[in-house]
Amino acid sequence: MNLTIGPLFESIAVYLWPFVRVAAFVMVMPVIGGSFVPGRVRLMIALVLTLVIAPVLQPAITVNFLSFAGVIIILQELAIGIAMGFAVQLIFDAIALGGQVVAMSMGLGFAVFLDRQRGVNIPVLGQFFLMLGMLIFLSLDGHLALIQLIGESFRILPIAGAGLTQGAVSFLLSWSGQVFVVALKIALPAITALLVVNLSFGVMSRAAPTLNLFAVGFPVAMLLGFVVIFLSMGSLTENVSRSTADALEMLPALLNSR
């Protein structure tokens, strides 16, 4: 009896190619891709999504995944999944950056906390902003929209197609500038208020040189910073919602870039 492994490889490839893209996306996407989510859980999510997506895709390509061409396709699928997850993750990096800027202006830069999303230490205020951003993202069903987009990506960029073009890479690099734009929108109210306070204390120090600014200015700046943060919660929610919507609208444009 002659046994051939060709049909076996073809059956594996039907699920392998989609799994590579989906797994790369799940490992990088916001919330689910955080280090606080166990790797096994993320792997199971990727497997379940692959089992749902793979049967409705176009017929699998007849390329041995152990060949050189198969390795190239795997690298292409990895790049597509990572690029999609990274593009959305930039919004949350901007939220954390905005919180860090506010914390530094208030004098809370020394209060750091382990960010379980990235595994690094960031100011507590930045972590607070990031948690609020995640809750807003989940309340807007952003995670469901991302799952829908990863399924739609197989129609826009089929497996073994052109992959990420130079135009897509350039588009992604230009989109990375949104980190500073969103961070500025989030931190601008607190920075403006604290700048006025610092200028006021500068004038007071010239009028009364014996005034201990460290004993007076630090509590006032911190208290005013918390008041401004409380008053600007509405704008924070609006900025996060708008930025999330922009990121979801950007992904199809990224995949269609030529």
TrEMBL record:
It is a multi-pass membrane protein. InterPro entries: FliR, T3SS_IM_R. GO terms for biological process: bacterial-type flagellum assembly; protein targeting. Keywords: Bacterial flagellum, Cell membrane, Cell projection, Cilium, Flagellum, Membrane, Transmembrane, Transmembrane helix. Its main location: membrane. It is found in: Cell membrane; Bacterial flagellum basal body. The keyword Membrane applies. It holds the Pfam family Bac_export_1. The chain crosses the membrane at residues 12-31, 43-61, 67-88, 95-114, 126-147, 154-173, 179-201, 213-233. One of its GO terms (cellular component) is bacterial-type flagellum basal body. PANTHER family: FLAGELLAR BIOSYNTHETIC PROTEIN FLIR. Belongs to the FliR/MopE/SpaR family. Role in flagellar biosynthesis. This is Flagellar biosynthetic protein FliR. It comes from Woeseia oceani.
